[in-house]
Amino acid sequence: QLQLVESGGGLVQPGGSLRLSCAASGFTLDYYAIGWFRQAPGKEREGISCVNTSGDTTNFLDSVKGRFTISRDNAKNTVYLQMNSLKPEDTAVYYCAAANSYVCEYGFDLWGQGTQVTVSS
Predict the structure, then answer these.
(1) How many other CB atoms are found less than 10 A from the CB of residue 56?
(2) Rounded Cα–Cα distance for residues 36 and 93 (Å)
(3) CA gap 24, 89 in Å, rounded
């Protein structure tokens, strides 16, 4: 069964950091671009960033630039989202998704179940 599993979410104070992981099972991530997305309560899902198979990244969300960094470790079949200087408005369910291509431009087919991130004092 092909699946992505996110982990690393939790409760963190404003200004804190978390690293989310997106692990693949049933297939190798080497050949696919991977994106991170989030959805806050009552809001639409928004794209955060994406990393292609060459390691090049695309950032979709201005509000997290300079604070969030996407990376991949193909040896571990995992993609990460390092989140620093977290703010209450970053509270959301975070999802990773695999593109149907080695680049980020052509949509995402396989989604994880999400991990909750709550930023609160």
Answers:
(1) 11
(2) 11
(3) 28
Can you tell me the distance from the alpha carbon of 28 to that of 32, in angstroms, rounded to the nearest whole number? 8
Structure tokens at 101: 């291509």
Return d(Cα 79, Cα 47) in angstroms, integer: 15
Other CB atoms within a 10 A radius of the CB of residue 86 amount to: 22
- Is it the case that residue 40 has pLDDT exceeding 90? yes
DSSP state of 106: T
Please give the share of the chain, as a percent, with pLDDT higher than 90: 96
Q: How far is CA 109 from CA 83, 98, 118, in A?
A: 24, 6, 26
**Token code pair at residue 27:** 């297939």
> What separation in angstroms does the CA of 92 have from each of 31, 43, 74, 88?
28, 9, 26, 9
What's at 26, amino acid-wise? G
Give yes or no for a contact between 97 and 34, defined as CB atoms under 8 angstroms apart.
yes
- pLDDT digits 0-9 by tens, 54-107: 999 999 999 999 999 999 999 999 999 999 999 999 999 999 999 989 999 889
